[in-house]
Amino acid sequence: MTAIRCALAVLVVLATVQAHAQSAATDAGMPGEPAFVEHRLTLQLSDAGEAKQSMVLNVAFNVLKAYGPDKVAIDVVAFGPGVDLLHDGNPNAARIRSLMAQGVHFDVCMNTVATIERETGKPYPLNLDARKVDAGIVQIMTLAEHGYTTVRP
Fold first, then answer.
1. Rounded to an integer, what distance in angstroms lies between the CA atom of residue 111 and that of residue 11?
2. Which of 95, 152, 153 is nearest to 129 (CA)?
3. Fewer Cβ close by (within 10 Å): the C or N end of the chain?
4. Residue 81: helix, strand or coil by DSSP?
């Protein structure tokens, strides 16, 4: 009977240590993240179309309105056909600037951009304030590992 109690005690200790480690990783957030952030959101944009772009931007605005820019970290990750959102001259540029001014980050997948440039033979001009990431899906995974919830509107 004592062996069973000892084994249970070890399991409880291990579970507690694991829970604290996961909590510490989640609380850490991403480098440069505001100190008082309580909520973390990744918005995935991997579809083409103005309606989809508008929906992602609306979601970002609504989440900022609900929590306030000091309490939420939002990262929009665009890859595949979704990179059009961050093309220089996108009609949503003013909305993107407004969200950026409130701390929202916009990441663009450079794998996608390189493919577009290779297939068209032309440079693909980007919004100068977009953060270039090697791979959009890897960025989403990294954000998830830092406590971000991924939503694909």
1. 44
2. 95
3. N
4. helix
